[in-house]
Amino acid sequence: MKKITVSLFAFFVHIACQAQHFDVVPLGIYGGEQEDNLSAYLVGAPKDPAFLCLDAGTVNTGIRKAIQLNSLTGSEETVLKDQIKGYFVSHGHLDHLAGLIINSPADSKKDIFGIAPVLQILQNHYFITDTWINFADQGQKPMLGKYHYNELQEGKELPVKQTPLFIKGYELSHINPYKSSAALVRYNDHYLLYLGDTGADRIEKSEQLNKLWESVAPLIKKGQLHTLLIEVSFPNSQPEHLLFGHLTPNLLTEEMSKLKEKTGQKNLENLTIVVTHRKPTKDNPEIIRKELLENNPLKINYIFPEQGKKISLP
Question: Is the pTM of this model over 0.90?
Fold first, then answer.
């Protein structure tokens, strides 16, 4: 009887450890060139069709693909207008927001989250008459008022309306001093961390990633943060002076080693990394995949997303 009790306890512990806390649907996975497959990830609670869109390089094509793969239900219009409840824009480059801009006439009223410099780029360069029209409620007149800007301030968590999610922003360096950002998404007491484009601290001569690791390490140690979505744009052969604020497999390992110093190896082995923003030039995506898998001293679980294919995450 004692053996049965111990076995059942071990079983339920295993099930608890494998519990799913987030659904992620990639609407676009690449970092340039393929305009129908650029950085955009829907995140939501499991089986809840209420999503926050993390960046929005490609939107409509990704929705269509996800519906075809049964990752999303309903029509393209329903997903765009009713299921996407808000957008987080990590930085002002087109491969992270072109889908949001292009689809704005067909979209519904919702929030845009971003750090102050990113929201200023949207106001001053995109939602203006010369390039589009102002669909937001701040900036150049006339203002159509469809989107409301929500500034993410350091250390302050904001709710994502009509979802059970909360979001907190962190500044990153993407060709210093140009600013990108990360989003820490919370559902109940579990977290998911999404990083926009970022260079390694050593290359950027910055402390932004170190500050981020300091902030999230306690969550990893408590078992509340299991998943990072982080970019690896180039293979290891890319010269460091031509990285333009991006990571390689070696540089990601370098940064994860710094994170390990704050969490311990055992805690880091529970981490899943979804590899985003691979540049699709030639064989780069497959080379990056191979380099990450063949040199993995920290025993990290890597996921390589596919457009439209849902990922269930702890």
Answer: yes
